[in-house]
Amino acid sequence: MHFGKMVGAAVALLLYTLPVAAADTLQTIRDRGRILVAIDISHPPYGMLDDKAQETGSDVETAKLLAKDLGVKLEIVPVSGANRVPFLLSKKADIVIASFSITDERKRVINYSKPYGVIPVVIAAPASEKITQAADLAGKAIAVARGTTADIELTRLVKGVSGVNIVRYEDESTTNTAVATGQQKILAAALSTANSMKESNPDKKLEISLTMNDYPMAIGLRKDDPQLQEWIDKWITDNLANGELNKIYKKYYGMDLPENIKG
After folding, report:
1. pLDDT below 70 — which residues of the chain?
2. pTM for the whole structure
3. What φ, ψ does residue 123 adopt, rounded to 5°?
4. Phi and psi (nearest 5°) for 117?
5. Contacts for 229-232 with beta carbons within 8 Å, 24 or more apart?
6. How far is CA 71 from CA 184, 199, 217, 232, in A?
7. What is the spatial distance between Cα 28 and Cα 5, in angstroms, rounded to a whole number?
8. Is the bond into 45 cis (omega within 30 degrees of 0)?
């Protein structure tokens, strides 16, 4: 073989065998001029529509602040609890800001930013149900949104408890409607959701019966996206330090962020 052809073949082989570089999503977002953020707008107070049919809520405000600081426009990609991860992995969204708590199950397929909030998940039921422990759920039906941390914790909680009927709905809005209309008396959800249901449906006489767990809340990212991960982690650090993220949290949840998150 001619020497020049040999060199060309060797270079081609080398290029073919080199690992493909990870896509720089951060640069893609900047070039595009907008960031695609997955948000569940059926899950107040994290995401919801106001009286003018505009998206609002703590997740929406967090996403708006992030987009502003990144210098791009925000494009909200509506998701449910069940399809947040699939939308991220299929690149329908760049990141997830959707009451997204950190779980070991999700860590297997995605990355998380550093935490910027916390989500307690609870069981809410009428006082007449007398629920003080997992065993008290025997033979009862419980409404929960599929794929949420409340679903994960409820499944763990009732393992081995006989006759429990976990009724899974596709999103928070449908779950809440089921409880509000009496299809199920008991709700497994984030504390904020349970409190909202308690206030908006006084006839159901809901109370917080059990706290199943407390989850740190973070932004979801795809794996092998180091530039975007680094930028978002620094953004969270800066906006915890300057109080902007605490301001959003306090506006919607009536309390300051826990010290271990703020620190």
Report:
1. 1-23, 263
2. 0.75
3. -110, 125
4. -165, -175
5. 229/111, 229/113, 231/26, 231/70, 232/66, 232/95, 232/113
6. 45, 38, 24, 13
7. 37
8. yes
